[in-house]
Amino acid sequence: MKRILVNGAGGFIGGHMVKRLKSEGHWVRAADIKRHEFSSLPADEFVQGDLSDQRLMASVVEGIDEIYQFAADMGGAGYIFTGEHDADVMHNSATINLNALHFGQKAGVKKIFYSSSACIYPEYNQLDPLNPKCSEKSAYPAAPDSEYGWEKLFSERLYLSYMRNYGMAVRVARFHNIFGPEGTWTGGKEKAPAAICRKIAEVEGGDEIEIWGDGEQTRSFLFIDECIEGVRRLMESEFTGPVNIGSEEMVSINQLAAMVMEIAGKRLSIRHISGPLGVRGRNSDNHLIAEKLNWKPTRSLRAGLEKTYRWIEEQVAVSRSANLVGNV
Q1: Which of 68, 79, 121, 148 is catalytic?
Q2: Residue 100's CB: how many other CB atoms inside 10 A?
Q3: Which of 13, 86, 202, 216 is most buried per CB count within 10 Å?
Q4: Quick check: pTM over 0.85?
């Protein structure tokens, strides 16, 4: 049994990781600025506080064997790509990573996982929605399309420098659009699958939903269970990374919406409006993960969306009922 710290446990991926580690029999300390919104986590300890605070980070890493570092200031395109949150995104996330490494190394933490992002990949390789280039070796010359991506790339180098200079075992993965139940689905920080599921679930009398841009921008989306499996395999391997953890099933946003409509049993039209979009095309390249870990994700996008839509449909129903009661 290992003593493991999960930073960002109050969030989507961190919460699922806590459950996985506890199911494997590990002792888990969870830490985040907020409690998990949708689940009562089975962590042995939950420390609530701001991980950019040095004193807090110094305390949560004590007695820990391994760290899973998911904590970051982040959100979907509506949060990341407007430019309005750039300073907070860079400052808050970089400070948390600096703290985790500095105090983790001083406390004798043996191994640390860092969740990077596909947002580090150069915009110039993602202009063609049908043929994006996102192999791990394509990250340089660097040209991310957002400050969020620049911070992630800086932090990748930060983690690898601690491995070289201090001998810490480091593992780095670049996530590609992780989705699933118990993730943010409303409020402005949700990502495309959750936003589309919510919009379709909310439609009662109308016959259309809104989508930013022309909807021909492409992405691949990875179900949360596959993400957690990939991270665990990486942590138990001898491979440092960085490595992509994502799906190779690329779809346009219009196709994504059509798939959710089919799951929901609703035939709706799409009204395209202006909004923040990010790169034109992005898809995970899984050659390296297959080579190094002898594994890559296999769950279809539709299978993951079916579970995600039903969960979000329940959240919408609960929210609607609460509003009705509040208006009585």
Answers
A1: 148
A2: 27
A3: 13
A4: yes
